[in-house]
Amino acid sequence: MPLTVADVLAMPGLEIRLLTGQDGVGNRVRWAHVTELPDPVPWLRGGELVMTVGLGLPPTPEGRRGYVRRLAGAGCAALAFALDERITAVPPEVLEAAAELRLPVLEIIGVTPFIAVAEAVAQWHADERVRGERRAVAAQEAMARSALRAGPLGILRALAEHTGGETLLLDPRGRPRSACPASPSPSGTATTDVTGAVDVSATSPAAGRLPGSPVTNGRHWHAEAVAAVRDSAGTPRRAISIDRGERVLLVQSLGFSGPPRGWLALWCAGPVEWHVRVLANQAACLLALDLIGAHRTRTRAHAQRAALLAGVLDADEAAMPYAADRLAEVCPVAPPPYEVVVARPRDRAGDGPAGGVRAGRPGGDHADLAGAAIDALADVLGDPAAEELTFVCARPEGLVLVVPETTPRLGLALTERLTALTGREIAAGGCRAADLREIAPAVRHAAAVAGRAQGGYGHVDELEPWALLRDAIDPDGAGRFAEIVLRPLRDHDAQHDTALLATVRTFLDCAQNLESAARRLRVHRNTLRMRLRTAERVSGRSLSDPRHRLELWLALSLEEMVPPGRRG
What we know:
- The chain is of the alpha+beta class.
- It is built from 18 helices and 20 strands.
- The two termini are 71 Å apart.
């Protein structure tokens, strides 16, 4: 609570009366100072109660008006005169100028010495300091109790109550999470009757404000806090102070090392007193501890989910359906489809993804990347419930992330956030999985894309040639094409128990090399030649004709070479 001119007038033991400037009795008195200089302004800092016997007053009326104007312009709280034989009355031009400028003019009456006024002001500030320390200690204890009882919302509520302000919690990207009070006053004045806090995680990140938020200079202070955080993106942890005259916006990063884990915004009366800054810092520390604890809890939960996902990724083709069904039974899983992302930190030389094994640990750098990936998921998804349905699993081929396919280009946002959190260049690939059984092949396709990437994110649908070809072909038409080309060979295999389809496929896979194809099929090359002549006769296509070979290759390969999630 600041000391005002009205408080000085009411101090016991001082005989002081107000001569003019009633409108300025609410001015804050920072100090009481005696001066007889004609121009004391260079030695003043504002907020002083200037006391004088009038020796320094200019001799002319206009000079005395200028004297008053300079004091008012320097931010003086009031001007006090002690009248004696040197000056028996305050000059009228001083009173007139002071009344115009709303500068209180006081008279120190009787035997009250200047030193008594100065000591009284100094003693008040000393006592106020003690009172402030007691209030701060009581508020810190209340804030700690609120943190234990109600978590972040309790911390926001206690900070708002004990500072007479309003509070807002934002995530690392500047999206509102919680606010107190739940219904901010539309006038923007200090809210002393704070009844509760509200979780605003559902608020649109693009809006950057809450309904009914106070307005300052035509802007909601919530939006101003969001803008301040987003303007500081990519910078180290910091505190921001924005002075709006009667109100001040304080924004402080949360965390003790590394990138901010969130931001705390306090909208309070200005100028900000020292105990308000102490309480804001205390709240920031408590919120940071809560966020760190929540991060560790999420990390343990993701480790358990990663072990379950590893069972699916390591299962062979025959056991895959059982492993996928078992995963869905024992672990909360989002409904399909999924976006599968494989991320790898690139090495310092920049000539390829970092190795997957380091110091004898499977996963190596990829395991180190998991903690940052969990934070990236929380930041990008912005929904704790959605994050609980994701998977983060360190594998030799890279860090595997499986997320619900709910947002376009979610993998790109995850890669960019992961790069910002780690400070390393990340190469990542993405692939769609229509269900849990397609996650393993989707990981292989995404890892192949990540391996070819020079940094950043690439999706199979954008980079996989077969996926691009499939997009250009009507699925029904592709099916009819394969049926027409391969039906004679299938019918012959079914009727005569032969393996013409497998023979043709192996021959084409071996680049029409008889020796290689014969070894793979474990037959003599003459036997292979006989089978190939039969296949040419049955299919009506010559394997020496490039066009016929292309038709057979497409019919055999198009379906299975399309990445998971694209078949239909």
